Amino acid sequence: MQVASWIHGGSLKPMHGAFAQYIPVDGDNLFRIPENVSFDTAATFAVGFQTAAMGLYQKLKLPFQIRH
Questions:
Q1: What is the structure's pLDDT at 37?
Q2: CB 25 within 8 A of CB 5
Q3: Distance of alpha carbon 3 from alpha carbon 31, whole angstroms
Q4: Structural contact between residues 57 and 64, judged by C-beta atoms closer than 8 angstroms
Q5: CA distance 23 to 7
Q6: Strand ranges (DSSP E) for the chain?
Q7: What gap in Å lies between CA 2 and CA 23, rounded to an integer?
Q8: Nearest alpha-carbon partner for 45 in 56, 33, 35
């Protein structure tokens, strides 16, 4: 099974952020990569997801919750 994840890259909290060779990721942020999807395609998933989420939270004022 192949998995990918998304994580915010600019976090100032210790052990959070994506600017490293290896990073810890919460299991809640993992998703399975289907066999017909390449790693490159899976790596771009977060761009569209985060863009849509930011638009929804900013435009519709949806509540934002971070779970730790």
A1: 94
A2: yes
A3: 6
A4: yes
A5: 9
A6: 3-5, 30-32
A7: 17
A8: 33
Nearest alpha-carbon partner for 29 in 53, 63, 57, 62: 53
How do the pLDDT tens digits run along the chain, 68 residues long? 888 887 766 666 666 667 777 777 778 778 899 999 998 898 888 788 878 888 888 888 777 666 65
Cα(6)–Cα(42) distance, rounded to whole angstroms? 10
The residue written with tokens 């600017």 in the block is: 19
Sign of CA dihedral 47, 49, 9, 7: negative
Q: Which residues pair with 3 in a beta bridge?
A: 32
Query: Token pair for residue 16?
Result: 């959070």
The reported pTM is 0.56
Tokens for 33, please give them: 């990569």
